[in-house]
Automatic annotation (TrEMBL):
<keyword id="KW-0732">Signal</keyword>
<protein>
    <submittedName>
        <fullName>Polyamine ABC transporter substrate-binding protein</fullName>
    </submittedName>
</protein>
<keyword id="KW-0574">Periplasm</keyword>
<dbReference type="InterPro" id="IPR006059">
    <property type="entry name" value="SBP"/>
</dbReference>
<dbReference type="Pfam" id="PF13416">
    <property type="entry name" value="SBP_bac_8"/>
</dbReference>
Length: 353
């Protein structure tokens, strides 16, 4: 048998000589595309989850498509519905529910994904096609140069000393929707499913102090770069960016509590590689992948077996004292009147800025 060294193989390839064993290997490779958040989430998710998955599964190639928001992610899939180019989507639970209702995502079961049996009960949400892959929470971010001591209350957003120095992502962004529910509690508004009027009224009083309702590129950079003194964001990203800018920015979990945010992982209906997609989803939900990602980006894992360090746990929303202060919210119920919240913001909040 002829001895084919690497040099000879490369030389034959350069001359255009057919190499059937190479063609066969290429044909056997399966490719899937995962669409999820861009920016720092993309950078860390690739290293913590996608690269280890491909190393363990050399026959599956995973491409990543970064999207700024879940709404944009869903919009792309709507345009591709007849011939989807995406196989797996990670997005917030409200948008995932909408996509599932439209038949864009295919419901998965524990029979297809046995790893789902390892997840905490809150990870399985009725009416949502895929299980939760991360939990997070809304926090307040602040410029260290403006706060000798950390702010302790959401009411700091109404402090006139910060006029023109506050950044808020308005609805339909879920940060703004979440702030509405927090404000409704601060105002004594009662059950948000019945009325959010008091919360909207209170937000209207804050409006003149806000510099921007659409911070670019995002509220984290706005605070870290000194463009504003205060902003709201998601804990995982805020903690990571504050760690990178430890002399300029910090994160506060106000004493009144906060609201959980849920990201789900979903199988696209019409995926060309559904088996490979399910294999990736299984790995992404595994205790190993969940722990690795939490250590890197401080999301709360959904797998009960994920072992994370105490240092990482302290930066998540999963500490007992933070969990005790969480405001109970049913995001599926909120989804039913999200458009109403957005319209009330347009008429009664943003118009007052």
């Amino acid at each position: 048998m002829q001895n084919f060294t690497r040099r000879k193989v490369l030389a034959l390839g350069a001359m255009g000589v057919a190499m059937p064993w190479v063609t066969k290997a290429s044909a056997q490779e399966r490719k899937i595309t995962v669409a999820a958040y861009s920016d720092i989430f993309e950078d860390i998710y690739k290293k913590a989850v996608i690269e280890p998955f491909m190393k363990a599964n050399p026959g599956i190639r995973v491409d990543y498509m970064g999207m700024p928001t879940s709404a944009q992610n869903l919009g792309m899939l709507r345009a591709q519905k007849a011939a989807p180019q995406i196989d797996v989507c990670i997005m917030d639970v409200v948008v995932a529910k909408a996509g599932g209702d439209e038949g864009i995502y295919k419901p998965v079961t524990a029979e297809q994904l046995p790893v789902m049996k390892q997840l905490v009960p809150a990870a399985i949400i009725e009416g949502v096609p895929g299980p939760a892959v991360t939990f997070d929470t809304i926090v307040m971010m602040y410029a260290l140069s403006k706060f000798p001591t950390p702010p302790t209350s959401w009411k700091e957003l109404w402090n006139k000393q910060h006029a023109g120095r506050i950044a808020i992502d308005a609805p339909p962004n879920l940060l703004g929707v979440g702030l509405t529910l927090i404000a409704n509690k601060l105002a004594g508004g009662g059950d948000y499913r019945q009325s959010i009027d008091k919360g909207i009224q209170l937000l209207g009083e804050m409006a003149p102090l806000v510099q921007t309702w659409d911070p670019k590129p995002n509220p984290y950079a706005a605070v870290a770069n000194g463009v504003v003194d205060l902003g709201i964001g998601y804990n995982a990203r805020a903690q990571t960016i504050s760690k990178q800018n430890a002399d300029r920015m910090a994160v506060a979990m106000p004493e009144e509590g906060s609201i959980a945010q849920i990201n789900t992982i979903n199988l696209v209906n019409g995926s060309k590689q559904p088996e490979a997609a399910l294999q990736f989803m299984s790995y992404a939900l595994s205790a190993e992948a969940q722990a690795t990602f939490t250590e890197a980006l401080y999301y709360v894992p959904t797998n009960k077996g994920a072992a994370i360090s105490e240092e990482a746990r302290k930066k998540t929303a999963a500490t007992p004292e933070r969990m005790a202060r969480m405001i109970d919210v049913d995001w599926i119920e909120v989804a039913k009147f999200r458009d109403k919240i957005t319209e009330q913001w347009r008429r009664n909040v943003i118009s007052r800025s």
